Amino acid sequence: MSEISRKTDDTEKITINVGYVDLGRIDLLVSEGFYSNRSDFIRTAIRNHLNSHRDVLDRSLERRTLDLGLREISRAELEAARDRGTPLHIRVVGLARFSPDVTPDLAAAAIGTITVLGALQAPPAIRSAIADRIR
Which InterPro entries match (predicted)? Predict the structure, then answer.
């Protein structure tokens, strides 16, 4: 299993609403030097909570045969699936992205379904070509 690197462009921005008291507590921990900023606290809290459910997550990943981490969808992989006449069923927890040389027609010809729990990076033309297959 691979893990997504923690580079800025490999993250997804989310917006959350936090109560004023909780936000104040976070700011207090930041001001005391426990965390460098609010985002650092929130990322750490999320990682800790996910780690507390690691066994459940691992069993679910195995049962559902999901790829974990970064899944690069290459032109060669799509061409091979198209040529075999066997559509790809791509299932990812993390980040799925298409190689720059993949065309919308090739993606449409080779992909049966694509399920991404996390983020899908695809040009608008590819998203449009496979829109009915994105789960």
Answer: Arc_rbn_hlx_hlx, RHH_8, Ribbon_hlx_hlx
* In the chain, where the domains are located: 8-52, 58-133
Q: Count CB atoms within 10 A of the CB of residue 70.
A: 17
Separation between Cα atoms, residue 76 and residue 87, nearest integer Å: 14
- Name the nearest CA neighbour of 2 among 70, 73, 72: 70
Residue corresponding to tokens 């195995």: 62
pLDDT digits (tens, 9 = 90+) for 56-102: 988 888 787 888 899 999 999 999 999 999 999 999 999 999 999 99
For 102-114, the pLDDT digits (tens) are 999 999 999 999 9
